Structure prediction request, 395 residues.
Amino acid sequence: MLQIFIRFFSLGLVSFGGPAAHIGYFRQTFVQELQWLDDKHYGSLVALSQFMPGPGSSQVGFAIGYHRGGLLGGIAAFLGFTLPSFILLFLLAVTSSQWLEYSITQGVIHGLKLLAVVVVADAILIMFKQFCQRKTAKLLMVLSCVVILLQPSMLVQFSLLIIAAIVGRFYLSASDNAEPPASSTHTTEPVRVNFFWLSIFVGLLIASLVAVGLSKQAGIATLTELFSQFYQVGSMVFGGGHVVLPLLQSSIGDAVNNDQFLTGYALAQAVPGPMFALAAFLGAEIWISQPLVGALVATLAIFLPGFLLMLVALKSWHGISSRPKVTGAIAGVNATVVGFLLAALYNPIFSSAVLSPLDMALVVLGFGLFKIFKPNIFILVAGFGVSGALITAII
Prediction:
């Protein structure tokens, strides 16, 4: 367990670049160097993480730890990989009142918000190419974006995900690439679902929905409500990474303002580790009386659903992936998620970050350099932070 923790902790200290980069780091370390599993097994874990809602790269890390050391190994992997970013974002949250008052700090944060525009725009472009190749998928993406722009709420997003799954089941079941029909000798692999973990996941999801409703009726904020809000987000985020933004914003509502939300997102870009560690910053900001408790509850809640679902499906993934109707439903959900992210690009990211033609020019320049030269994310963070500080000093 200690070996698993140390290996993932060391990666958590240096894993800049988001989920795609994390998956590359994991492969280099655990497949090529340590040989804890082979490429085929690793590829199946990556595919499963894309199939399930939750934090993609963290789910892969959890699955590697589970493969190496059972449930405790999975927990050790999660703690090791997440701890560096959790500590950094928590400390930034509890000290924000001290360093946010300086104009140069405000400039750096503004620059990081502009970086968020670049990073999310690039994520949308990549996800559009990956998930929206067919007309039905493109239509789902456009309609979901329009609806969320006009009616941004958690209930609307959840409803759109259900509709997208139904549409995808009937119209996106076939592969984007034409494949020959299966031969008569083909047999579908049986699905072995772990109902123990599934019942925990479903039970907590139902309880979270009830808890949020009761808290709103009572008008009193509780830790149970905080857990429930972040648990619901973790249960519905397909695609991981930046996709968490629109759902988080809808879920926590007025608990934090747009500036706090985007500051946390910008800082999450600047630290290594999983994007979902943003929950540590937001939890500390929301639960001001006991920020460490708030950060711990929010972080546990947002990661937990994805890990429970991995435990449900780890032994049945091949059987699930062999069913075209299921993969069609997921294709519909993925296309809709791209629409959600496009809506989030406008509000709150673009509308709160780009305030002048100079800002827009920096975004366009940064996006161009990002696509042409593909610099390390740490270089981008430093460049946009310095640019934001200079813009603030000049203006």
